[in-house]
């Protein structure tokens, strides 16, 4: 029976829980407690896995979300191991539409805690529905981009619902969807006993989980496609297609029947996503997203309206009808959201522990390009060079260390850093020398720029250091130094301008950037990269305007990235597999790339492309039969088609290469290059 004082059912004699927004919170609420340098400010909610708190880093005001594993789950060692393993995998998922996982470690009372980006906004379940079709498709499209990126890394959600999709606003005020709770379903599923599974217990939101999840069948990424079909149906109609579950094979009403503003083509797309059998749905999130965009194309909608007019011509003969294809669609009232306060991005946690950089993981490099998951940068990059002649040193445990400073102001500066960054909130001694005058003070580390951010921005990795309680004398000295250090900008360097223009044509293709052929060996790749870096180094000593210097440093970062990507067999194999560059893959195999190192990369590649492995095997079998019949040209063609679908199958690639060598002189040379680009003049070499 519920307590008469708090209207919550709890044991007799126990203290009443707190209530937030009408929801009871346990008396063991962690509000006000510390988690490392963070303070739990406010209870946000609780789910099946844990309780979520809003945490604040007091020196800067940055806000985070911290999920604390429920005590009854934390008491299971296997659950703790799975919790940390999932967190480790999710740290590599960096996408503008995913609430990023930053760290996982024990928190108050030893309970495992997950530190996440705080998504400040409204969940889809609280939006005013139904939405206008163009608005619903926009939100659904952003969500599918996030799911597509996660699937490319082998990460499935399997519990998508309108409650863990949040509409926020970014630093520019633009609407942005954030997907929460990746990995939660896998963690909870691991806690089910065999007896519970035998009784049909499943993890997930009943209205959103796919039929194969209910029946205990094998589940893949198409279950997430189904869940987003339910979300899209809800956004457009204001109701769930099957209520709280699914009854048999009954199809839901078509969305355009419930909401006349929905185009029939959009209805058909959503109903395909809601098909009861996975094979009848879209094969992956990308196909779903592309079909949504296609059905909302103005030309397709105009054709649909014309077709409707032809069908109803007898009823409309006396009515004048005009169409304005350029008219903007009717939308709902704007949703007012507070500006998002983002957590610092990067690979060093708020606790100061270093995480391996994304760039050191070949799998991440290979699949990031395939999923178009470039991180969106919303914090300012260090751009303004320090006054000429400024010398800055900071005091670390091993002594005073000289650093290169940028963005110097009366508040602090950015210090370029090599190696592990100092922990956030660390207080360091600072010494600044300029024009024969030296001042000393203390500074706090308030933000990191990690290797991943630095490569994208084209700057050095490092840390922002704010002066701790600066005295007026220090502020006056820094202002004087900045005024004295101002000099007229030098004229642009003509030779560098021509080089930058040629490099811009190379876009993001590292082969073209280095002027290397797709089948270049590793020695040539390294030689070209070293020569390019030596040439760029010569420009660094010249007087350059700030814009050209920034472009030069960005280009150096791209060359370094090209050398890392193409200069090592495993990273190059991942990149060439995504690009379909078989000659490059052949070079990796020749370099002695072990099968056991390639296999995890191959598994991730095929997981992102359901069905491709079976198609490739069928083509390779046909090629083998043709080879037995001595039809070498046809056999090589089949093998090449199989490798286009499964390029990281090392044994197939070796066999294909050997057959090509044996076939030299017996049959015309078969085209091996599947690389989309063509050989371009060397961008950076004279």
UniProtKB/TrEMBL annotation:
Stored Pfam families: Pkinase (PF00069)
Record bears the keyword Lyase: no
Enzyme Commission number(s): 2.7.1.-
Superkingdom in the source lineage: Bacteria
Mapped TPR repeat ranges: 616-649
GO molecular function, one term: ATP binding
Keywords linked to the UniProt accession: ATP-binding, Kinase, Nucleotide-binding, Serine/threonine-protein kinase, TPR repeat, Transferase
CDD domains in the cross-refs: STKc_PknB_like
Domain Protein kinase intervals: 38-293
InterPro entries given in the database record: Kinase-like_dom_sf, Prot_kinase_dom, TPR_rpt, Tyr_kinase_AS
Protein name: Serine/threonine protein kinase
């Amino acid at each position: 029976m519920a307590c008469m004082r708090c209207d919550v059912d709890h044991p007799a004699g126990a203290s009443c829980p707190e209530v937030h927004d009408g929801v009871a919170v346990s008396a063991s609420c962690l509000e006000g407690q510390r988690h490392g340098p963070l303070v739990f400010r406010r209870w946000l909610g609780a789910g099946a896995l844990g309780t979520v708190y809003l945490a604040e880093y007091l020196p800067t005001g940055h806000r985070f979300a911290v999920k604390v594993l429920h005590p009854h789950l934390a008491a299971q060692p296997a659950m703790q191991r799975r919790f940390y393993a999932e967190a480790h995998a999710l740290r590599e998922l960096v996408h503008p539409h995913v609430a990023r996982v930053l760290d996982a470690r024990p928190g108050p009372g030893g309970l495992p805690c997950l530190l996440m980006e705080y998504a400040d906004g409204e969940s889809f379940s609280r939006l005013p529905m139904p939405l206008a079709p163009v608005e619903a498709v926009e939100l659904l499209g952003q969500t599918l981009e996030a799911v597509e990126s996660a699937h490319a890394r082998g990460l499935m959600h399997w519990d998508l619902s309108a409650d863990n999709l949040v509409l926020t606003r970014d630093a520019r005020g633009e609407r942005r969807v954030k997907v929460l709770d990746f990995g939660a379903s896998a963690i909870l599923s691991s806690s089910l006993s065999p007896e519970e599974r035998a009784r049909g217990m499943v993890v997930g939101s009943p209205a959103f989980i796919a039929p194969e999840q209910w029946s205990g069948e094998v589940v893949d990424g198409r279950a997430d496609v189904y869940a987003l079909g339910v979300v899209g149906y809800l956004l457009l109609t204001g109701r769930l297609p099957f209520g709280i579950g699914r009854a048999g094979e009954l199809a839901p009403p078509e969305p355009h029947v419930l909401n006349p503003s929905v185009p029939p083509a959009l209805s058909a797309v959503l109903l395909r996503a809601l098909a009861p059998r996975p094979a009848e749905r879209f094969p992956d999130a990308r196909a779903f997203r592309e079909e949504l965009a296609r059905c909302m194309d103005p030309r397709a909608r105009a054709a649909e309206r014309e077709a409707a007019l032809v069908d109803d011509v007898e009823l409309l003969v006396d009515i004048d009808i005009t169409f304005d294809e350029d008219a903007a669609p009717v939308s709902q009232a704007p949703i007012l959201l507070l500006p998002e306060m983002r957590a610092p991005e990067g690979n060093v946690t708020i606790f100061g522990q270093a995480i391996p950089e994304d760039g050191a993981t070949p799998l991440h490099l290979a699949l990031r390009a395939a999923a178009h998951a470039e991180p969106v940068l919303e914090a300012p990059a260090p751009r303004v060079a320090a006054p000429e002649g400024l010398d800055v040193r900071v005091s670390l445990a091993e002594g005073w260390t000289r650093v290169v400073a940028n963005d110097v102001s009366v508040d602090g500066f950015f210090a370029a850093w090599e190696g592990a960054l100092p922990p956030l909130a660390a207080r360091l001694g600072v010494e600044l020398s300029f024009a024969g005058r030296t001042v000393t003070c203390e500074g706090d580390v308030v933000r990191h720029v990690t290797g991943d951010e630095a490569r994208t921005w084209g700057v050095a990795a490092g840390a922002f250091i704010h002066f701790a309680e600066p005295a007026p004398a220090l502020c006056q000295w820094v202002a004087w130094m900045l005024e004295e250090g101002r000099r007229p900008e030098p004229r642009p360097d003509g030779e560098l301008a021509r080089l930058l223009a040629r490099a811009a044509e190379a876009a993001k293709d590292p082969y073209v950037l280095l002027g290397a052929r797709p089948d270049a060996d590793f020695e040539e790749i390294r030689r070209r990269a070293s020569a390019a870096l030596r040439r760029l180094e010569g420009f660094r000593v010249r007087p350059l305007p700030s814009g050209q210097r920034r472009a030069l440093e960005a280009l150096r970062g791209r060359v370094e990235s090209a050398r890392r990507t193409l200069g090592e067999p495993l990273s190059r194999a991942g990149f060439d597999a995504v690009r379909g560059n078989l000659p490059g893959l052949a070079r990796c195999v020749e370099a002695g790339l072990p099968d056991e190192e390639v296999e995890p990369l191959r598994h991730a590649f095929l997981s992102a492309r359901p069905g491709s492995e079976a198609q490739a095997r069928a083509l390779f079998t046909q090629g083998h039969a043709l080879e037995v019949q001595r039809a070498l040209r046809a056999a090589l063609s089949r093998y090449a088609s199989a490798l286009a679908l499964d390029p990281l199958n090392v044994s197939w690639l070796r066999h294909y290469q050997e057959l090509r060598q044996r076939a030299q002189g017996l049959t015309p040379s078969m085209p091996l290059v599947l690389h989309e680009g063509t050989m371009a003049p060397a961008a950076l070499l004279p």
